[in-house]
Amino acid sequence: MAMSFDEVTEEAHFEKTSFRVGKKIYATMNEPEKRMTLKLSPFDQDVFCTFDKNVVYAVPNAWGKQGWTHVNLGTVRKEMLKDILTVAYCTVAPKKLAEKYKIDEDI
């Protein structure tokens, strides 16, 4: 799913897999822990984290305050994962690329 957006590359990032657009990471995959970490704006992070703290939650350190957010892949619904990946992609993608995928300006 993370590779479905325009101009995304998959690269190693320490012991994880990263997904990048324009050389910027918008998501990482931690397969052993069945978790993705995504870059969101603080507002978008608040919106998604209100759903269920066992499914979507801020990274518990300074990275979390910058919008980095964990998603539990064992419990997240496919539709929600697609939405949060889209928002993360649009957060870091160049405006020209992001416009194609914008879900809603309020998310």
Can you walk me through this structure?
- The structure is a single chain.
- With 107 residues, the protein is an alpha+beta fold.
- The protein is 29% helix and 30% strand.
- The chain contains four helices and six strands.
- Strand 2 and strand 3 (24-30) form a beta hairpin.
- The longest helix has 15 residues, at 78-92.
- The protein is globular, with a radius of gyration of 13 Å.
- The chain starts with 7 loop residues before the first strand and ends in a 9-residue tail after the last helix.
Q: Which key features would you list for this structure?
A:
107 residues, alpha+beta, Aspartate Aminotransferase, domain 1, 6-stranded antiparallel beta sheet
Short description:
This protein has 107 residues and is an alpha+beta fold. It has four helices and six strands, in the order E-E-E-E-H-E-H-E-H-H. The chain has a six-stranded antiparallel β-sheet.
Number of H- or I-type helical stretches: 4
* CATH architecture label: Alpha-Beta Complex
Q: Strand tally, please?
A: 6
Structural class based on helices, strands and sheet pairing: alpha+beta
Shape: globular
